[in-house]
Design brief:
The protein has about 350 residues and is mainly beta. It has two domains: about 90 residues, SH3 type barrels (Roll); about 220 residues, Nucleoside-specific channel-forming protein, Tsx-like (Outer membrane phospholipase (ompla), Chain C, Beta Barrel), CATH 2.40.230. It has three helices and 17 strands. The radius of gyration is 43 Å and the shape is elongated.
Length: about 350
């Protein structure tokens, strides 16, 4: 009797043992199934020991999913990715130096504003430009002293710009034994530009002038109009202006108020990192009398000695076809001297 029970239970024990040994089932992508005991499993292949064929190696790219004890013990291996190989879908990590640099990169700077946000409403910061000075002294047969000064500063916002400029000329002649001032003039102004689009902008300007030899006590000119950025690249900036102005003049004789049309241009060109040219020209036409006109022309060539110090050569011309009384129509100016650059350097 015990022998009969043993013979009846033996097949059952064998099946149970086989089920314990071959408890996993692998579903392939083509629909086939493989039952067996998983011996090893990697990202590239699975090794299965089967009852009927021994150990079989199956490429991971052909496996749809794995069920059974191994799958329950290692859920992350139960369903393999459907791509060709796990390595193919791994994200490409940036090199350590690049990743570190990306983390260390500062946040983008906000768009600059012309005014506001700083101390004194931003009036004292963000300027760049240059200041120049020239001086000559002669004695002997010719006794003269000449001094010139000039300054030009620009403050730029994201879509606007403010330019301030001034220049002076003083000359004294001592040939007669006494000092006689033959030139004492100062002129300058400011211009505010506001972009309409990438090329067109509107502007408002104010210019003043004082010239004692011409008996010009003071000239005040308020203007405005449109400008066009005709050329704008790494080496050259060329702009053209057109508009109108109101000229108020205090002089020896009757004071005048004159409406004027204005047109002109500004040019900046860099021949070399240390050699630069800057030119401005403005023409004023009297609206009420077409025979009265004047213009202002300035060109400066600067050779930088260092990043901050340079030597400048300036040619200027001021023409008025209807000057007061016996004053000459044209004043030509050539000066040279040191120039100091301030603000940020490009």
């Amino acid at each position: 009797m015990p022998g009969l029970v043993l013979r009846l239970l033996l097949p059952v024990l064998i099946l149970v043992f086989a089920a314990e040994v071959f408890a996993e089932e692998i579903m392939l992508k083509n629909g086939d199934r493989v039952s067996g005991k998983i011996v090893s499993q990697t990202g590239e292949a699975i090794v299965v020991e089967t009852e009927y064929a021994g150990k079989i190696t199956i490429a991971a790219s052909h496996v749809e999913r794995v069920t059974g004890e191994s799958a329950a013990a290692e859920p992350e291996k139960a369903t393999l990715p459907k791509t060709a190989a796990p390595e193919a879908v791994k994200p490409v990590a940036a090199p350590p130096k690049v990743a570190a640099a990306a983390k260390a990169a500062p946040p983008p700077e906000p768009a600059p504003r012309l005014f506001g946000g700083d101390k004194y409403w931003g009036l004292t910061s963000g300027w760049e430009g240059n200041a120049s000075v020239g001086f000559s002294y002669t004695s002997g047969n010719t006794k003269q002293t000449t001094a010139t000064t000039g300054i030009r500063a620009i403050k730029t916002g994201s879509d606007d710009k403010l330019t301030v400029y001034a220049r002076s000329l003083w000359n004294s002649n001592r040939n007669s034994g006494t000092s006689v001032t033959t030139q004492n003039a100062v002129w300058g102004g400011l211009r505010y530009d506001r972009d309409i689009n990438d090329r067109v902008f509107m502007f408002g300007s104010y210019d003043f002038e004082r010239d004692r030899p011409k008996r010009l006590n003071f000239r005040s000119v308020v203007g405005g109009g449109l400008g066009h950025k005709t050329v704008r690249n790494e080496t050259t900036e060329l702009e053209f202006l057109v508009g109108g102005a109101w000229n108020r003049t205090w002089q020896m004789g009757p004071n005048t108020d004159t409406p004027e049309a204005l047109a002109g241009n500004t040019l900046k060109h860099r021949f070399h990192e240390r050699l630069k040219l800057q030119q401005t020209f403005t023409f004023f036409q009297n609206f009420t009398d077409r025979n009265e006109y004047r213009f202002i022309f300035d060109t400066t060539l600067t050779a930088d000695i260092t990043k901050r110090i340079g030597w400048q050569f300036t040619v200027g011309d001021r023409f008025n076809n209807d000057p007061l009384r016996n004053a000459k129509k044209n004043d030509f100016l050539f000066t040279t001297g040191l120039r100091w650059n301030f603000g940020r350097k490009k």
